[in-house]
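Entry type: protein chain
Record version: 2
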Amino acid sequence: MPRWRVTSVTSMSCRARYLPASECRKIALTFAAFEEAAPARCGISMKRTALLLLALALHPMAQGAGDAEAGKAVFTRLCSGCHKIGPSARSAFGPPLNGIIGRQAGQQEGYVYTDAMKNSGLIWTREELRTYIKDPSEVVPGTRMKLWWMGNDEKMEDLLEYLDANK
């Protein structure tokens, strides 16, 4: 039976913060599988390394691994036709999105929402926004927002990071 040697985890751990939490979990589980086959280096066992990576992957900050600058490009391409964001943002066809994360849905002053949105009771979290952006009518039946999300998970994380950065 071949024995595996892990000579460096530096490149993986440096890149782990750019991966979705699910990918970080896979890496941690992979390290756990090699625990018995890989020798301990510098007094740190593979089990401890796997547990550390798993803890990092499950930490709430791991969810915010997007790139706000890339998110700005996604916003400009997919959202800016209806929504504005930034210090001078005003209501357009859609409401301004400054500080949307943590805000109650349907409550932005100066914008007329549908009854469905006003009465939804949603508080916009990253997870709620992720689900809503992918299928608005599924989350709030009767919403005016129509969007066919054409991005991937990485672009979604970038967009959410951009929205979160504009408080």
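Comment: Residues 21-33 form the longest helix (13 residues).
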